[in-house]
Amino acid sequence: GAVVSQHPSRVICKSGTSVKIECRSLDFQATTMFWYRQFPKQSLMLMATSNEGSKATYEQGVEKDKFLINHASLTLSTLTVTSAHPEDSSFYICSAGLAGASTDTQYFGPGTRLTVL
Amino acid sequence: DAKTTQPPSMDCAEGRAANLPCNHSTISGNEYVYWYRQIHSQGPQYIIHGLKNNETNEMASLIITEDRKSSTLILPHATLRDTAVYYCIVGSNRDDKIIFGKGTRLHILP
User: How far apart are CA B39 and CA A13, in angstroms?
Assistant: First the structure.
């Protein structure tokens, strides 16, 4: 089936540094990818919609200058958490949509756990 | 806000069928019902989706009421590995943004 990968799977960084997370669709092309954040024991919260070749669309309350999204190709979107702080520690998940003969749905990556010290 | 409501938790005995309900009374005519599940510390896994007909695949069955205001996900023979949070979502296509509700936490009891 369709596979979406994320790299890294886990990252620990110091407060004030920037962290880049990659999301790749491995066997299909995706013009649209989505980024979510999940805090412990909570549901996934949509952060932004990443569009290939154009600016991302951010959900209300998400700082676009802090969470930089780049969708440079049909198989890769990146999320950069700039000047990370401990409150940015979370599980970050991406998804990409696949259209096919028997499916028209989103597939999710395995997630990236960010810990900011 | 999420367009669906689900019970917060359910228990099911191992080997029995797990029936997970979902209400989506405001669903539009072109919106599908999607089900995903999330096992602890993993990304959500697609299970099944449907428009108005009942659907079945290797993982589960989806029963949608005739008025499309509710649906039930059926795991025919639940195993311990089915322990997860199950999310019922409505959307019109793969590029629709998904607003997750709280889902149903399914516990499979040995």
Answer: 26
